[in-house]
Amino acid sequence: MQVSRAVAAVAGAAAVLCLFVLPADAETPSAKPSPVPITQTLGQLGDRAGIFVGTAVDMTALDNEPTYRARVASEFTSVTPENVMKWQQVGPARGVLDFAAADELVSFAQANHQRVRGHTLVWHNQLPSWLTSGVADGSITPDQLRDILRQHILDEVGHFKGKVAQWDVVNEALNEDGTFRSTIWLQQLGPGYIADAFTWAHQADPGAKLFYNDFNLESVGAKSDAALKLVQDLRSQGVHVDGIGIQGHLGAQFPAPGTIQENLKRMSDAGFLTEITEGDVRIVLPTDATNLEAQAEGYRVLLDACLLTRRCGGLTVWGFTGLHSWVPGVFNGQGAAGVLDANFNAKPAYNALRTDLVLAARSRDDD
Ligand code: XIL
Questions:
Q1: What are phi and psi of 177, to 5 degrees?
Q2: Dihedrals phi, psi of 276, to nearest 5 degrees
Q3: Ligand 1 centre from 214 Cα, in Å?
Q4: How far is Cα 294 from Cα 281, in angstroms, rounded to an integer?
Q5: Ligand 1 pocket check: which of 59, 60, 121, 125 to mutate, most ligand atoms within 8 Å of Cβ?
Q6: Which amino acid residue places its CA nearest to atom 12 of ligand 1?
Q7: Helix, strand or coil for residue 355?
Q8: What 3-state DSSP class applies to 264?
Q9: Pocket residues for ligand 1 (CB within 6 Å)?
Q10: What confidence tens digit (pLDDT) does each residue in 271-323 have?
């Protein structure tokens, strides 16, 4: 892909260009550049660079906060429901389907010409209590559970057929050491539930791209080895699987993943799509100039790995302001994980993403 080589060539320049790009009339290096502010959004720049730039969407905020809603519409070319396509939301009681909130997001996306990533069909979290308690008290047998899972996937994927471009079919099924996570799915159905889930999803919408999605898949290691082996094994069994979703939940207190590009490349070389599906870089509060820079570096590493990898479709951030983020509720003392601050102002991370997107787009234009 042309973008890859071109980005590599200009990657070093990214650090110094910061918020500005040289205008076309800066003919020689000695000409004094009059900086031109980057006015395009992440999504618009992503279009030019050939990738989607998306966000997870908090439906409560979308409904109640006009600034948030306007920014989701203007800044991004892809949306993922943060919660409203999860089983707990779409299946509140046994035999009851509720796609109202998810339908609202899909309509919003259509009105704003955005792609929709569906998240997620099979996970061990945010399951409806009728299901977990039924399994726990034995009133739902393994055979019944398999039928329930099949129906859930057929119902949900079928409902959104043609409207959801990609599904995270199975989410977080692996442990850090690459073994299968012990969930109700593994315990009740055995590891075959993964192949079944992909098969049913493909049956319900043959046009949707189907992903295995997980965290801590950024670097080469036991877990990403296992994810790649999993999708390869599925494919060799004739199961339809398109790609691997690398969640991309990072912390500014840790080194950015050094082997992410190599990792995405091997997935791509093996014939799989990749996406950064839930990128964020949390900070141990309070923020300061140093940790904001480290955060920017984390975001840049995620973006650049995608830009540099054939068949990487895009970067989705898991919320774009610190106010609308899962981080403070889960990681004690941490937050400010988004690229914008609580007042929707750009942080260094936002400018870093824009700079690298501009460089990728310019390189592409030049090819
Ligand atoms: C999180 C949401 O952001 C929270 O609002 C919710 O309470 C819990 O789930 N990995 C995933 C996402 O795949 O679905 C999770 O989203 C974050 C971690």
A1: -85, 5
A2: -90, 115
A3: 12
A4: 9
A5: 125
A6: 82
A7: helix
A8: helix
A9: 82-83, 171, 247, 278, 326
A10: 999 999 999 999 999 999 999 999 999 999 999 999 999 999 999 999 999 99
Reported for 233-241, long-range contacts at CB under 8 A and 24+ positions apart, including other chains, are: 234/194, 234/195, 234/198, 235/271, 237/195, 239/195, 239/198, 239/199, 239/202, 240/198, 240/199, 240/202, 240/210, 241/169, 241/198, 241/210, 241/211, 241/212, 241/272
Alpha-carbon distance 88 to 211, whole Å?
20
Q: Is-catalytic flag, 278?
A: yes
Of these residues, 82, 156, 172, 275, which one is catalytic?
Answer: 172
Residue that the structure tokens 């009133």 belong to: 139
Amino acid, res. 224: S
**Three-class SS state of 317:** strand
pTM for this one?
Answer: 0.91
CA distances from 223 to 180, 181, 194, 217, 229 (A): 10, 11, 16, 6, 10
Task: Specify the residue for token string 């994927």.
Answer: 157
Give me the amino acid identity at 91: G
Q: Which atom of ligand 1 is nearest to the CA of 319?
A: 3
CB atoms within 10 A of CB 221: 16
Instruction: Find all residues with CB under 8 Å of 244, minimum gap 6, and list them.
Output: 211, 212, 213, 217, 227, 228, 231, 267, 272, 273, 274, 275
pLDDT digits (tens, 9 = 90+) for 14-59: 433 334 443 434 344 444 445 556 789 999 999 999 999 999 999 9
Find where tokens 């973006």 sit.
Answer: 303
Residues 6+ apart with CB under 8 A from 65: none
Beta-strand pair 249-251/312-317: unpaired
> Could you confirm whether 297 is annotated as catalytic?
no
The whole-angstrom separation of Cα 281 and Cα 36 is: 28
Report d(CA 316, CA 275) in Å as an integer.
8
C-alpha 150 to ligand 1 mean position (Å):
23
